[in-house]
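Office hours follow-up: a student asked to see two folded examples consecutively, so here they are.
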Amino acid sequence: MQKICFIVVLVFLHACQKKEPPSLLSQALVLAAENRYELEKVLSFYSQDPGDSLKYRAACFLIENMGHHYYYDGEQLEQYQNYYKALHNHKNKSADPVAILDSISMLYGPFSLKNLTPKYDLKELDSAYICNNIEWSFKVWEEQPWGKNISFEDFCEYILPYRIGDEKPTAWKQAFYEKYNHYLVPLSDSTYSGRDDPVVAAKLLMGSIANPDSVYFTMTAPAGYPHVGAQTALYQSGSCRDLTDFAIYACRALGIPSHIDFMIARGDNNADHFWISYTDKSGELHVQDFPGSFRIARQDGLRFDPKAKVYRYTFSVDHHTRNAIMSLDSSAPSFFERPLFKDVTIYSSGYYIQELKIPSSQIYRASTKGKIAYLCLSRQMDWIPVAWASFDINNLSFKNVQKGSVMRVATWENNRLVFQTDPFSMHYLSNEITFFPRTGSLQDVVLYAKFKLDEENIYRDRMLGGVIEASDYPDFRKKDTLYVVNEVPKRLNTSVPVNSVKPYKYLRYYGADGTHCNLSELAFYENVKDTAAVKGKVIGTPGDWQGYGTHEYTNVFDGKTWTSFDYKNGSGGWAGLELEKPVKVGRIVYTPRNRDNYIRPGDTFELFYCDSEWKSLGTIKDENADSLLFKNVPQGALLYLRNHTRGVQERAFVYEGGEQKWK
């Protein structure tokens, strides 16, 4: 028996030496330790029949790269999956993801990877699991009409893998195949146009299962939570990463090669972003934000969103990048220590530059131990490495970088970033680089927000044409106009003097057509200098667009600038007051619907400017003001306003022409 086993091992080693470079495979087998026997069983099984040569190569591919993959196990991992189940159960009802997550955190404790046990694929996966995955992968590759147009290399990267990220491995392919393959039955008809194109198949599949009404998208997620796994992904609930994972599981289980493309950090926001991409048989790249529609990548608007770099997840490690980094430095930021990705920036970015050269005059001259330069993007008060290059003061450049983001160069020393330049940005069209210096002449700044308001433009714009009216009749059949909103609000509370010619008992805001009467707060004052608003019975048109009662007309007079009215119909909505007795109106204050990113009176704010680290310019707390005045601020510097009282959305900016310009 021992002789037979010895011969089998020799056959396996000889086959590996013939078919694959032995070093990676041998190293993986050594690292597998006690689990080596299970991996050798897989290789031995597929080395017996010459007809299994491709399956043998596929097994080698998996095992060679398995050492770079791991997952977590533990009770808290399972407990927090209830969050995604709750989102799924609430998708057609009123649901607050933050409240759901808070309740789960109270029940099971704050989520932390420290409460879980890391496990490594090389030491955990058995031969039955690996072989089952290989068999199902080959089954769908060979049986689908587009399979002939999928290369073995693409098959290995985008169909064969048994996992997506760091989720707990399960045997998911057969279950997904049996659940969704019937949607592809039309492609079995030889007359079906494009049946041999994987993107045609992907469109048919996604069009069948991507029902927006069955999807719950939210940016709220347990901090640090791993990929949710195949079973939880079926809930079709969670972040863009979670929804992308679901689509990838479904596609790969049916033999459709699909990629997870992503930006580590947006250049204009505090989030990353994930989406699905597919390559058709002619080589054209298509993209999809599940459950959205397909777009040709080179025509997609996403190309122009600032992001600096775009990568694609792979199962195999980029040995060239890893070896190059490790040959220069002993450690690297985690993303680059284990480069399971390929750079696809040029396919997914507009306005990119093939070589971003950093002027030597802008590089700090202090000595540094770092031999690798990292290009970083800002995320709140952190800097996120997104690209790397050999650090050469006189010739430092980064390849294929999209323009438009605020960036900064750093080295990695003692497990932290050490900055080597001031922040800078490159103009989209001119390629001009603008640095934001740490020092400069001093100026006073007036601030109205802690985060960019561009995403709220729809709410501010909806106030245009809104009319504030007064009447002696509850139905306003006869009314006088006190004020018309003709300018987009620029601050939380816009105060305007009015001079009503007579007293009125009924006052209201009437939204312009098509605006859903969006408004957060409205207050009336008898005199311009009064600090107490007039009181009365709240009246208006009932019914909100959400249908949950959370955005009713009563919100306009609840004293909360972060709640709002969103009338159920586009037009005809209004909110007002019935006063105890008629009054003359001397001043009106109104607040647009918003996401609570303005300066809220009573909160404590601290302003920082970007030096080698963020440095404070002082704190302000004002119980009444919706703006902040800071003195002696370095002109041209990158600034950051932190709200110590509440909120999570904050973003760096510069102050130019008397305005905050978000970066």
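And the second, which I mentioned at the end of office hours:
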Amino acid sequence: MGEVDNGMLGTERDLVEARRRVEDTRRRTAGAPGRHVLPALGEALRHLSALLVERPEHHDELTEVEAELVDVCRQLTEADAAQWRAALATALYRQALTLGVLGWRSRALEPARESVELTRLLVRDEGEGRLPALAASLTCLGNQLAELGRHEEALALMREAVGVRGRVAGARRGPSSPQDEAELASAESDLGIKLGEMGRRQEAATVLGRALERYEALRPVGAAVLPHWVTVFALVRELTALGRAEEARPLMGWAAAQYGELARAQPDMMALFVETLRRYGWSMTEDGRLVPAEAVQGPVDPAVRDRVRRRSEQGLALASAGEYGPAHRAAQDAVDLCRQALDAGAGRHMSIELARCLHNLALVAAWSGRRAEALTAVDEAVRLYRGAVAHDPDVVRPLLASSLDSLGTRLATLGRHPAALAAAEESAALHRQLDQAEPGMHQSELARVLNNLGIRLTDNDRHEDSLRIAREVVDLYRQSLRTGRQDDPEATLGLVHALANLALRLARTGRDEEILAPTMEAVRLLTEQSGTHPRSDDAALAESLGWLGDRLIRGGHRGPGRIVTRTAQQLRRRTPTR
């Protein structure tokens, strides 16, 4: 499909030789005048990249090799754009593919976008022979944007990719080639899968149906059946979600029959098909039926799962009560139980359970002042969720969104502000996506996450952007309180924090005349509460109010400023030491 790179696996001896060739060429390049040996280094890096791409255990090395290849191609392009621009576009495309597959969507955006821009220039200057490369780069950029929640931009690019593939297929004299039709089917399938992931199921089913018709006309065999299979599974998911399970049943019958035929005729292909089944959450039973993976491999023991959840929830409850030692032991117990179950062969759902427990452990660790441990735990949770989101998008996306928000906070606490902002932006994008799919259901959570995003923007000196987000957050909390429970203490305290942050953003951008109203509203709401929520960052709120009180006094609002200052002092006194 759109993000699969068909590299050459090769042997381990090939890999060793490719590394040696790169090192030898690097040495010759370093000692040579000018750039006349750079093409040889570029070719050596490209060959090593092709060998590494199918080896997940070497993906760290792959990203380094691809970054170096981009740098080499950029130097060559600066010397001779006409000759090397296409190589640079390809290197950027492959770099974006790898970063996207590894889940580093924000990092993938820049090379993906540059690849599209360069390939558009190639089409303009060299003609329609460059259209297939343009379609591939459009799909790659669309995938990154879609995963970051920028859906309209993503859909426009993916629709353009389908249109470009259609132009390629229609440009042939006579019937289009099977390769062109296969590429068009793949582009339609990518578009349909993304539409489904965004909750636009009816449109997704229509687009996937068109892709499936093309595949059926092509009658692919061998490895070419894999994208056909992916399209079938995606369409089955959408039809089932739309209540059209009867239409999905024959498709699953075809998938099972195809599996059985390959087992007899091409047993060497079975590893690829088993991996495809696993990636999409399916397994084959001994009697030839396709079933969800947990039905045949390591189902979660309900007793173990219940014990895990009890211990994890107990950890949160104890931490909320300020009993951090017992809380940490309970949260760690839950993590250990999950790991033991996975070691014993539990399935994918236990990996998701482990990620939940790691997320909770990170919260407990953070509340008790264990900052480094909190970051380690939530970082692992994010990685586990990224690995599971393709299998269970409806379940995992909200969990991934929440853990990304927590990851941003943990990174910021340790002073890693650019990385914290990237995590916060991705979290906010996913929460916007969830809110769009189910209007009103995720409003309070979206407001909370956007509030954190505003803080991350300020940490990175993006003050006007932060002010814009702060205004949106206040509006969201007001709307949430109007449409929900008026006496919800957590939502009210969310509005208090949002108002204080808005006042800070106004002051930061020189709008001192506007800070009085939100500050005093925050104080009024805070004093009406009987207490603060254990998960509220009261120390930060007290610091903000103290600063705002001083700002108001110096700005001539002495009476209100003193009230704000006293409120900050009271909040500090009742805030537990952590």
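Two things to take away from it. The beta strands are 282-284, 290-292. Confidence is low (pLDDT under 50) at residues 1-9.
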